[in-house]
Specification:
Number of helices: 3
Distance between the termini: 23 Å
Strand content: 25-35%
Strand order of the largest sheet: 1-4-2-3
Main location: cytoplasm
Protein name: HPr family phosphocarrier protein
Largest sheet: 4 strands, antiparallel
InterPro entries: HPr, HPr-like, HPr-like_sf
Domain HPr: 1-85
Subcellular location: Cytoplasm
Shape: globular
Structural class: alpha+beta
């Protein structure tokens, strides 16, 4: 399992349009991908689960990737977060 943390810098937080793109990015991989903020966690491949977390600007999330292509998935998703949130 590979994990990384990221602090959301987008003033709108983790909002719908980029979250939808994030889900599409996560769905490209066979690994299980989980997003965690505090005590809440969600499957990163499910848009409504992510939106239900209500992640705001300044909050830190943790992404955990587990599976056959976890290294590539973690690298791709971390880059996506840096470029979009």
């Amino acid at each position: 399992m590979i994990q990384f943390q990221y602090t959301i810098t987008d003033p709108n937080g983790l909002h719908a349009r980029p979250a939808g793109l994030l889900v599409k990015e996560a769905q490209k991989f066979s690994s299980t991908v989980k997003l965690t903020r505090g005590e809440k966690s969600a499957d990163l491949k499910r848009l409504f689960a992510i939106m239900g977390m209500g992640v705001k600007c300044g909050e830190t999330v943790e992404v955990a990737v587990d599976g056959a292509d976890e290294a590539e998935a973690a690298q791709t998703l971390e880059k996506f977060f840096q470029e979009n949130f």
